[in-house]
Amino acid sequence: TPPGDDDEDYVPSFPAIGSAQRAAPSMASLRPQSNAASMMLPPPLPNRFQGQPNSRKPVRNMAANGLMDSLRSQRSGGLQTPPTITEKPKKPRKKVILEPGHSPLDWARLQRSGYDLRGISTPGFLRITPSELKKHNNQPDDVWTALNGKVYNLSAYLPFHPGGEREALRGAGKDCTTLFMKVHPWVNAEGMLKECLIGFLVPEDDESASIDIQTDDKPVVINGSLEDID
């Protein structure tokens, strides 16, 4: 029998004995059973900078190298070293030693001396065809050449040529204008060879071409007619 209500020390039970609440399962019994493993903290997340596969390291290194190359290029203004072009070195010309008394000054002095440097008996200028010019290529006394339409007797000039006689003979008996302009276009040939001028180069079929012209700023007979040669 439960104690009476007049008992001062009596404390009623809750829920009451035999009540529906007392008969229902407790909340503690509804909670899932836990063990020590379930009470442990979850494992830490993997560090994205660690544990990467080895296969990705070269890619990262290549990217870093590319970045460094880009920075170097920017610092240098983006200029790249031009490719090296290997050219065949030109053979240096052999220096020709002229005989004493055959310097350019000696040649200039000889031209002013009044000595006949033309080497022909005709006092005037000749009209010379290519076929006639070709006949005069014999060293040392009969070497003619054509330059810019004018024909010169090089016989007296050969030992004075700075490149040597052999080089000068490359133009013997022919038109050497192309060769002359290729080797030394800056040289004033007209002034250097003015006393060696013997005539002018004319076409092969030129009717006035002749080596028998006798002229000294006087009327001459050419093909039976009188003409003046300036």
From TrEMBL:
Keywords: Heme, Iron, Metal-binding. Residues 1-60, 72-94 are annotated as: Disordered. Signal peptide: none annotated. It comes from the Eukaryota. The keyword Cell division does not apply. Coiled coil: none annotated. GO terms for cellular component: cytoplasm. One of its GO terms (molecular function) is cytochrome-b5 reductase activity, acting on NAD(P)H. Residues 1-10 have a biased composition (Acidic residues). PROSITE patterns: CYTOCHROME_B5_1, CYTOCHROME_B5_2. The keyword Metal-binding applies. Residues 125-202 form the Cytochrome b5 heme-binding domain. PANTHER family: CYTOCHROME B5 REDUCTASE 4, CYTOCHROME B5 REDUCTASE 4 FAMILY MEMBER. Belongs to the cytochrome b5 family. This is Cytochrome b5.
